[in-house]
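User: structure tokens for this one?
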Amino acid sequence: MSTKKYLVGLFDDDHTLLHAIENAVEQNMEMSDVYTPFPVHGIEDKMKMRRTKLHTAGFIFGLTGTITAFSLMAFANAVNYPINFGGKPVFALPAWIPIMFEFTVLFSGVGMVLTFYYLNNLYPGKKPEIIDPRLTDDMFAITFDMTKDSSNKSNLSEFLKKEGAVEVFEKEF
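Assistant:
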């Protein structure tokens, strides 16, 4: 298993962090990630991140649940158990709506959780890669990947210190 190397710049203020991100993007520096202890408004725009397509996946999972519920009930009422008692219609859509709704919610919820785990490479037994334990309390961090090319390490360190980083260090996993 290969080791990953990161250059980490720790910040103690979210406004300083946002300013550093903005300057890094202006200078075309390739950040690997930014860590914050709480959601920081506008960080996605500053990092020029593309919008997620998770909502599209949720719609597709929900539609799959609706179609599955409809198909199962139509099959059961029309093909598998076609008994007409008390004037019951073969196609009783109003009675099926609650079941179709529940299948929609079930498929959408489970599908979104599994998609989230897949996209974030989360699985049982995975060891967390903790950059710094202070990031969950009161510190912010910008990381740069140094695995392939560490020739500009001094330039990045200078940049982070100039932008107000409290601490700059290298971390290996």
